[in-house]
Design a protein that fits this description.
single chain, 786 residues, mainly beta, 7 domains, five-stranded antiparallel beta sheet, 6 helices, 4% helix, elongated
Length: 786
């Protein structure tokens, strides 16, 4: 017998070569029984294959050397039935012979198998007479086989008992029977008496039976999780082996009988328990759910505010970990802060009762059978609990949650600069659930302020405060988010619509006083926060120019300039300026706008998308010949190991030498969000970060078989670095770049005029000409180890 262990199949089928590599068959259950194979799985889906050395696919040159070949098989069921060899093989039997051996295999459910009660034990029996012939002679070999059935096994909660007849009558041909030896094994491997004793097995004989007893959970078997009707169950499986040797004196002969018999206990209900380990002074729920076998995995947890995966729970500030025990079981430990929005609380004058509802979503591997466990836990905490605010944003709203502590009757909420009275509350969506107040505020609401206006988004800020008239405590809360918003719309007939909004840094601005380049062109509509303009490409001072195949219309919205005192006719720089652009192309209209920073006149770069596409790659080495594929991320790198980046602007047909790619800013973050913190600057205004002890190294780009126009490429080298966090040995790092696409035929300042913009500007950011555009690219994640 040959035994082979392999890893999890994960739904893949086993295959065997049918005597030559060109013929491959799936190893089905029928083929396995016919050809001498058996396949077993452990609790984690790992496969173990047993193959007889006389299996169907073994090259056997001695069978024909004997001169005999099998022609006919006679089955006794108990009446006789004569079957030719080709029909025997077609019906699922396996049969072969050699000069010294005849091998016949049959599935237990074959129609020629019958059942016989032997010493009170039900057994499956097959009796055959096989006729072999050569050119001169024929011979007949009678054979019988008897296999135990599930009826030979009994179970108690702690013990498995397997009974095999001491004298197996279907295999005995004389009255002079003598049992000589009995050996015990597991999974085809014979055990010594010491091993049998050490495992707690018991092998005994009486007048009628050989009796094997195995404790449930003993070494040699394994437990497996199961799910039935949504309930968690466990079974224990083991495959004992018996080798029996007896002799018969009429005529004298020895018979060796071996049987491998897989046994699985009936499913046992395994109740789960949730254990509270809460320490109220720590302000968190601590619970443990268990115990499970190792093949159970936590998939998600449902709280009152939604379903969270394990990763999402940890990201939210919860803590989930597996606790493993010496007996092979495990439990799941969960920590949730009292302050999380999933926690309910109710209060009286002296106590706060925190309640946490949970539904654990679990699965049994490898088949992913799912089941759930529902639990509720609560804790009472003495003392005054202060109120607090948390908040998030979606694509157009601020969502604020106010937890009022146990002083809800005195709490006052201020939104912006206004007390949240019932009249003002009608302007927003407000839901109260116990001590929680959920407030939804649109980003353009009158109680919000605009911080920055860009081409496709507005960064809006909401300020709130909680005031307790009794304790005089005030808690402040501010939340800033960027919201997608089209401020400029370009119509095919040449009409342009633009919106300007009052921003926080210019509090004295009156929107109705804004004008276009032509001071006579004021807003079509205005209020105390916004001004809307409607004009055409031929009015209000709008200018136009041609850039390649694109016509660019430009205007600007600003406050009228005033003379500077004592400087003759010199005008002061406008406090507010919003540039408006419209790009008219074939069958397409593009628009963009940017607002200067009112405090230092530091303009935002124009953002467009056009037909150019910028991509960033990570090369395998400094040759820049081979690049990492998407499926290879996250890459695993060590600290100080170099990374080789290449940024390319893809030009249609790759045929425009006027396009020049410039790197403006490059930086690294721990999250894919390019605006996340912490942030490490790599390239600033096209130059290496001088404050970095391991500065970026720029590499030249030369034309070759892949690079037709070097101006379309930029290459730089970065050494892997560490965000200083001693608690984490590894990090996922993302690298981002803002790039500027220049037109070489138009002179301009800033990045488009020089390789490194801050060499002469001392770190200040330059304005860019209308022929430039800014794009954003990201590479990663890169898994960095210290």
């Amino acid at each position: 017998m040959l035994r082979l262990s392999i890893g999890p199949l994960k739904g893949k089928a086993l295959e065997v070569n049918a005597k030559n590599a060109s013929h491959i068959l799936a190893l089905t259950q029928n083929l396995a029984s016919q050809c001498g194979f058996s396949v077993k799985m452990d609790s984690m889906g790992n496969a173990m294959i047993f193959a007889s050395l006389q299996n169907c696919f073994v090259q056997n040159s001695t069978a024909t050397a004997s001169g005999y070949s099998v022609t006919t098989v006679v089955f006794t069921i108990p009446e006789q039935r004569v079957v030719k060899i080709d029909q025997v093989q077609r019906t699922g039997y396996g049969i072969t012979n050699s000069p010294t051996r005849l091998v016949l295999r049959s599935p237990l459910n074959a129609p020629e198998t019958f059942f016989q009660n032997v010493a009170g034990v039900p057994m499956a029996v097959l009796k055959t007479s096989t006729i072999l012939e050569n050119t001169l002679l024929s011979t007949q070999i009678d054979s019988s086989v008897a296999c135990p059935t599930p009826g030979s096994v009994s179970f108690t909660p702690n013990m498995i008992t397997w009974s095999v007849p001491r004298r197996i009558d279907p295999l005995v041909s004389s009255c002079n029977f003598q049992l000589k030896e009995v050996f015990l094994g597991v999974e085809g491997m014979r055990l010594s008496p010491g091993e049998v004793m050490a495992r707690g097995y018991s092998l005994s004989l009486n007048k009628m039976h050989i009796i094997l007893q195995i404790p449930v959970g003993a070494v040699g078997g394994y437990f497996k999780s199961n799910v039935k009707n949504g309930q968690y169950l466990t079974t224990y499986s083991i495959e004992p082996m018996l080798e029996i040797l007896w002799t018969e004196d009429d005529p004298p002969k020895d018979t060796k009988y071996k049987v491998l018999f897989p046994i699985t206990t009936p499913p046992i209900i395994s109740p789960l328990q949730l254990v509270d380990r809460i320490v109220p002074e720590e302000g968190v729920f601590k619970v443990e759910l268990g115990t499970f076998l190792q093949d159970v995995e936590l998939m998600n947890i449902t709280f009152l505010d939604g379903v969270l995966s394990v990763a999402e729970c940890n990201d939210r500030g919860f803590n989930i970990e597996e606790l493993r025990f010496p007996n092979g079981s495990k439990s799941i430990a969960l920590t949730v802060p009292f302050t999380d929005r999933a926690v309910l609380n109710k209060m009286d004058a002296r106590n706060v009762i925190y309640t946490l509802h949970m539904v654990f979503g679990l699965a049994v591997l490898p088949e992913y059978s799912s089941f759930t466990y529902t639990a509720v836990t609560e804790v009472s905490v003495k003392g005054i609990v202060p109120a607090y605010i948390t908040g998030t944003c979606d694509h157009e709203n601020f969502h604020v949650t106010v937890k009022s502590g146990n002083q809800v009757q005195n709490l006052k909420i201020v939104v912006g600069q206004r007390l949240l009275t019932p009249e003002i509350a009608e302007q927003y969506r407000i839901v109260t659930e116990g001590a929680h107040i959920f407030i939804t505020v649109p980003f353009y609401a009158p109680d919000t302020v605009f911080e920055v206006i860009e081409s496709s988004s507005i960064r809006s800020k909401l300020h709130m405060s909680l005031r307790d008239p009794v304790t005089m405590n005030i808690q402040h809360f501010s939340l800033s988010c960027s919201f997608l918003s089209g401020l400029t719309e370009c119509f095919a007939n040449g009409t342009i619509a633009a919106v300007a909004a009052k921003i926080e840094s210019v509090p004295s601005m009156i929107p109705s006083q804004l004008t276009l380049k032509d001071p006579a062109c004021g807003p079509a509509y205005s209020d105390d926060r916004i001004a809307r303009f409607l004009f055409t490409g031929r009015s209000c001072g709008t200018t136009r120019k041609f850039i390649s195949s694109v016509m660019l219309y430009e205007n600007e919205i600003s406050l009228p300039s005033k003379p500077v005192a004592g400087n003759g006719f010199q005008m002061e720089e406008p406090q507010y300026m919003l540039k408006v652009f419209c790009y008219y192309m074939v069958n397409a209209t593009r628009s963009a706008a940017f607002l200067t920073n009112p405090r230092n006149n530091d303009p935002h770069v124009l953002t467009t998308r056009s037909q150019l596409r910028v991509i960033m790659r990570l090369a395998e080495d400094i040759s820049y010949n081979l690049f990492q594929e998407m499926e290879e991320f996250p890459l695993v790198m060590n600290l100080r190991e170099p990374l080789y980046f290449e940024v390319e602007v893809e030009v249609p047909m790759n045929s425009d030498p006027r396009v020049v790619l410039k790197l403006e800013y490059c930086w690294a973050t721990l999250k894919e969000d390019r605006k996340s913190q912490p942030r490490w600057n790599l390239i600033i205004n096209g130059c290496e970060n001088t404050e970095d002890p391991f500065q970026v190294v720029f590499h030249p780009v030369s034309a070759d078989a892949r690079v037709q126009y070097p101006s379309h490429f930029k290459r730089f080298e970065v050494q892997m670095f560490s965000f200083m966090d001693e608690d984490n040995p590894s990090y996922l790092v993302y690298v981002h770049c803002d790039v500027v696409i220049c037109d070489a035929t138009f002179p301009s300042d800033g990045l488009c005029s020089e390789q490194c913009a801050n060499k002469n500007t001392k770190g200040q950011r330059h304005a860019f000409s209308e022929g430039d555009s800014s794009e954003h690219v990201t590479s990663g994640p890169i898994l960095m180890f210290k």
